[in-house]
Amino acid sequence: QAADGAPAPLFPFTELKAGTDERHHVAPGHDAEVLIRWGDPVLPGAPAFDPQNQSAEAQAKQFGYNNDFVGYFPMPGAADPAAHGLLVVNHEYTNEELMFPGLGRQDTKGVAFKGMNQALVDIEMAAHGGSVIEVRRVDGKWAVVPDSPYARRITAMTPMTISGPAAGSERMRTQADPAGRTVLGMINNCAGGTTPWGTWLTCEENINYYFSGKLPEDAPEAKNYKRLGLPANAYAWGRFHERFDVTKEPNEANRFGWVVEIDPFDPTSTPVKRTAMGRFKHEGAAGIVAKGGRYVVYQGDDQRFDYVYKFVTEAAVAADPKANRDILDRGTLHVARFDADGRGTWLPLVHGTGPLTPENGFASQADVLIETRLAADLLGATKMDRPEDVEANPKTGKVYVMLTNNVSRKADQADAANPRGDNRFGHIVEFTPDGGDHAARGFGWEILVRCGDPSIAAVGATFSSATTRDGWFGMPDNCSVDAQGRLWVATDGNSASKTGRADGVWAMETEGAGRGTSKHFFRVPNGAELCGPYFTPDDTTFFVAIQHPGEADEEDPNAAPATFEAPATRWPDFRDGVPPRPAVVAITKQGGGRVGT
Ligand code: FEO
Ligand code: CA
Ligand code: CA
Ligand code: CA
User: Fold this and answer.
1) Consecutive H or E run containing 519
2) Is the CB of 205 under 6 A from ligand 1?
3) How large is the ipTM?
């Protein structure tokens, strides 16, 4: 309480000015320092980053491209668990035009990159996946521990196990894997989650980009692939690796689009694709223990008019981490229906129930999971405006759904949970599980905020009147709830031409009189989006991932094309000949204490 009896502001920090330029900026009183960049060493023996002489061998030992999800695991037994731990980082995708000299501007709209060759494709494949790094804060400054025994690179070539109900299905079998139980690599790993038993959940999102070729209309997987936009022919991989050509290996694409579970504390462990959690364009997988002890993982399927899911384990989470090793293999996947009366229902995706029968093309639970979207269509789930992160707030029991935008929704397609046609700026839905139980079937919901510029009436934004002209944002994407139960929203899609501001982080009040008030905290350099915000357990460090710095402003017809030679910024090195480098940044409060206070 403040002295006059008014509630103390939840976010007392001094607000950052919105805007765009070539650098990153954080609210006054904070430091924001680059921790690790694309090309920095991860594994022992990794060569120094040399953008003019790249190789797949070097890249497989170096930090990958386009860092997205970031998760922090305190080192067991550490003197200060908030100053020593493992950082796990997703490497979602690659920007060839910014990575490779001489490639020039590329047309990614359905045309595989023309200038690509096998050497460049192999570098790209090694730049995908994830990294595990050991990090330590010494004298207030974070650094990567060199030659750590935990250090690991996971790429598009790393052997993985397929587990759960779809493992071994005929539709998962390929020439290289006649058993349908092992696969090389994970791709387009967007957001994710960390589990209480110490594992990293990393989510395959836009897997359609990597596959090429044209499937005949009557091919067995034609309907399945069409629903996922497969193949999208956006990358050249299929020209050099036949498994990514759907005409050569028609089932390979069924082995992508899953949630992958990885034990970061065992660098020899085999990553596992957990098929029980469904196959779609997974944004993230943020979990929480439900009242009865079962684990609930919320998941968004990031596509216009796609769905929000949750997976509920069959077993309760055990105290012994080892006992939870395969807990994500058994459980029930549900999809959300949001009704106009503010109520909602989780619809179970269980073979043999309702329309999920052989007559409708589902011969087994494997079929339901491989074609999760088609199963959810039949159940009548609510078509949402691109569901991105879905995170529960352990302090309040509420769950926040980031709906980033949907310009394809027509006014007459608006519904209560997606109330705007031509929804350019997105919104956030908040729901409360019945009985405070995340495993419950029913929930109540409302809209926390409709995003966009509140000073333009036609936009229909609903930020509180206490929100300043720097405080509003559009296109919510990732989010994080800190240890105090405060919501932090990261965005993807703000730009000089769209909103007059760069992407970044905004602190969002969700409770009490300040509900709906947003405050600008951090912003990214030109062309970048803000991913993976993640706090250490005591909120003293806030890790953020700066993805694809230097991209051109797509919405601006006058913007010059961005290339290796002429990027929109050379952040963070600012050296001639060195391209922009996606990087993880550690934000701390000057003089110590919780970030954002
Ligand atoms: Fe990879 Fe939905 O953002
Ligand atoms: Ca995202
Ligand atoms: Ca995004
Ligand atoms: Ca992205």
Assistant:
1) strand 518-523
2) yes
3) 0.91
